[in-house]
Amino acid sequence: MNKNISHLYQIAQKESRKIIGLMSGTSLDGLDIALCEISGSGQNTAVKLLEFETIIYSEDIKIEIRKVFAKKNIDFEQLVVLNEWIGILHANMINDALKKWNIPACEVDLIASHGQTVLHAPKFLHQLEKFPNATLQIGDGDHIAVKTGIITLSDFRQKHIAAGGEGAPLAVYGDYFIFGKKGENRIMLNMGGIANFTYLPASLNPEETFVTDTGTGNTLIDLFVKHNFPEKSYDKDAEIAKNGKVNQILLYHLKDHDFFRQSFPKTIGPELFGYEYVQNAMLKSSQNTISVEDLLATLTRFSAETIAEAIQLAVKNTSYRIEDFKIYISGGGANNPLLVRWLKELLPCHFYKSDDLGISSDAKEAVLFAILANETVSGGAFNFGTKKGIPSITMGKISLPD
């Protein structure tokens, strides 16, 4: 037997596994590295976050990624070389983190790499009749495995699409296993570049559980901050937006898109919610002369209202009252005080951070990919039923170190 296959078999038999989860989202902030100790699988999964660090992307890295990010027309050579470069970059970041934590690579069982999304293209968005749902994350897993010496699982979203999904969101698989609680209605709301939530009813019935994108989270806010203030990458503490007023006419036109009328579950990315989307809304609403402060206030309100309306709709046709739900927030949007304040005004729920459940809100997505890797190696295809959007599968391609 190949020594790596033998090693993988031994890892699968262990009572607990040390798994590094990696996440780099559409906000292009950097690489989240979460070292987890995971035991069990499925609903018996237990996770302990041992170490966590976000390694910020330099401006040079962001510039290179933006050359292909969420664009239909690109330099194909740039995409090809980036796939290798990002893999090596992430591997070096992992090695640096392990050195900082004084943990030898041989003590880590697996790496779960999400990769860097460069294009998310569900069929309803690309509208090419003969082609299926599609998505692409770069940062080759073989490079990570070879450079770190650790068995690596990557490219998780492809199996989801192959099984009939749209490749996102994947959070439900981890959220259900470690955050679902019998007798308590929970919504796990993640506000990264795109916002999504996992609906976890008190029944914990997998047939009732689902996950969906709601629309933009931080992506438009960050985009127009960067456009108007090149030295800034985001609106820290909503300092700019708090000085503006919501333009209701523009807000109406921002919300006037078929995506918001689609049924759950659904996925989207910055391919729709980009600069052109806002420019079109400004043109239709004749609000081209809006101030930067008012624009950022309006974009923040846009995120808040579309998130809140999606959650209200999710609860509306159930036997539960929205007042009975606890909402646990994570992602960069959880640190935006204006966005959070408006959500609390719009939703009569109790709000918490995922930190209150023992997982840092900043680390949550990286942890969830570690859980996906754990399921692939040591668990199985948990049955979420037959409803759209949550195929009962395991995910991730396996790369061996040598």
UniProtKB/TrEMBL annotation:
Gene Ontology BP terms: 1,6-anhydro-N-acetyl-beta-muramic acid catabolic process; amino sugar metabolic process; peptidoglycan turnover
Principal EC category: transferase
InterPro entries: Anhydro_N_Ac-Mur_kinase, ATPase_NBD
Pathway annotation: Amino-sugar metabolism; 1,6-anhydro-N-acetylmuramate degradation; Cell wall biogenesis; peptidoglycan recycling
Binding site for ATP: 25-32
The reaction(s) this protein catalyses: 1,6-anhydro-N-acetyl-beta-muramate + ATP + H2O = N-acetyl-D-muramate 6-phosphate + ADP + H(+)
Keyword presence, Kinase: yes
Keywords: ATP-binding, Carbohydrate metabolism, Kinase, Nucleotide-binding, Transferase
Cited Gene3D superfamilies: 3.30.420.40
PANTHER family in the record: ANHYDRO-N-ACETYLMURAMIC ACID KINASE
Protein name listed in UniProt: Anhydro-N-acetylmuramic acid kinase
Organism: Flavobacterium geliluteum
